[in-house]
Specification:
Elements: E1 4-12, E2 18-24, H1 30-58, H2 64-92
Antiparallel strand pairs: 1-2
């Protein structure tokens, strides 16, 4: 592999641990392309959730249980977005630069 890099994947293993992929920075393989597609879906879902949140929070009839549920989904979406940002940031950084911190979840 001429230009190896480690990539943080947008999913976890069966044991709940972080998944990393060693790939060629210049010629990403099938798993990298699948990860790109999943990241795009995750970010798209986050955008849709923001729109839903704006509508829900603008409605004075929205109850506390709905807001808690919304907060939980927004937290999940934010975790996904941070994971995507860290993964992409690590791939943009030079080999001499320290990696960004890996999200806990």
């Amino acid at each position: 592999m001429p230009n190896p890099t480690t990539r943080l994947l947008p999913w976890k293993g069966a044991d709940g641990r972080t998944c990393l992929l060693i790939t060629d920075r210049d010629a990403p393989g099938h798993v990298s392309r699948v990860a790109d597609q999943i990241e795009a879906v995750q970010l798209g879902m986050g955008v849709e959730l923001i729109g839903h949140a704006e509508e829900l929070l603008a409605d004075p009839k929205t109850g506390a249980a709905q807001v808690r549920y919304l907060a939980a989904r927004l937290t999940e979406a934010l975790k996904d977005a941070v994971r995507v940002a860290v993964s992409r940031g690590d791939r943009l950084r030079g080999p001499a630069e320290p990696p960004l911190p890996t999200p806990r979840t």
